[in-house]
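Section 5: illustrative case.
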């Protein structure tokens, strides 16, 4: 029983994998922040792109004028 307690104590004090977990948490928080921040920005980008495509289509239509 003493060996189990020693191994458990050693396991609790072991910090060899803690940096990997910390880096993963940091990456997750930054990723979530980017998704939230850029989520609203892409709506305007989609609208601008749709307007651009419409204007280009209008310019290439026979008999239309580009403005």
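Designed sequence:
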């Amino acid at each position: 029983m003493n060996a189990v307690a020693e191994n458990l104590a050693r396991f609790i004090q072991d910090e060899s994998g803690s940096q990997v977990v910390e880096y993963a948490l940091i990456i997750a928080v930054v990723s979530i922040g980017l998704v939230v921040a850029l989520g609203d920005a892409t709506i305007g980008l989609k609208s601008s792109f749709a307007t651009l495509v419409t204007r280009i289509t209008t310019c290439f239509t026979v008999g239309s004028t580009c403005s």
